[in-house]
């Protein structure tokens, strides 16, 4: 029995190998810090991600933050259920909220992505809090993020690592 399970598992891995090697963004897309659903076979149709950057914390050991803009040119409303970042122990959605003159961060279970709209995760608003950062992260380096939608679809994209307080847009 265990031999047939092992053989079945080996066949499954062999069948998945070609899929794992597809969907890589081309060099121009990596350099631009963006990718589109056409380069990721698991991504929902019409999804594109741009301006992806992760700010390192000012104090080592503190969380960083992932920012990006995601567009849904498709016809269906989508919901981003989770985020993962290579080299990050835990990633969660947060939103900065001003209440009574005080800014606070509230966690978010998901991020709605309406059809035909663009959603920006940016400083002072929604973002992905990145905790337990790999010590090898350095300004100017790169990592990869993957967003998982509530229907199981995913989109992965390159992320530029930027200095604390930087927008990644020349500051």
What does this structure look like?
The chain has one domain: PCu(A)C copper chaperone (Immunoglobulin-like, Sandwich), CATH 2.60.40.1890. It is built from two helices and eleven strands. The protein has helices at 2-20, 27-32; strands spanning 35-36, 47-55, 64-72, 78-85, 88-99, 102-108, 111-113, 117-121, 126-133, 142-149, 154-162. Residues 1-39 have low confidence and may be disordered. By secondary structure, the protein is mainly β. 15% of the residues lie in helices and 47% in strands. Strand 5 and strand 6 (102-108) form a beta hairpin. It starts with a helix and ends in a 9-residue tail after the last strand. Strands 1, 2, 3, 4, 5, 6, 7, 8, 9, 10 and 11 form an eleven-stranded mixed beta sheet that branches. The protein is globular.
């Amino acid at each position: 029995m265990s031999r047939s399970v092992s053989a079945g598992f080996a066949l499954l891995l062999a069948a998945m190998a070609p899929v794992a090697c597809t969907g890589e963004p081309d060099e121009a897309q990596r350099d631009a810090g963006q990718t589109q659903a056409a380069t990721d076979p698991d991504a929902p149709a019409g999804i594109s991600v741009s301006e992806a950057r992760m700010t390192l914390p000012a104090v080592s050991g503190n969380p960083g933050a992932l920012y990006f803009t995601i567009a849904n040119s498709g016809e269906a409303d989508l919901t981003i259920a989770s985020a993962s970042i290579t080299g990050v122990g835990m990633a969660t959605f947060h939103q900065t909220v001003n209440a009574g003159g005080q800014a606070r961060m509230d966690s978010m279970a998901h991020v709605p992505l309406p059809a035909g709209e663009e959603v920006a995760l940016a400083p002072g608003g929604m973002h992905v809090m990145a905790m337990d950062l790999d010590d090898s992260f350095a300004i100017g380096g790169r990592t990869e993020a993957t967003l998982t939608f509530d229907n199981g679809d995913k989109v992965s994209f390159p992320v530029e690592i930027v200095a604390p307080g930087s927008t990644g847009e020349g500051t």
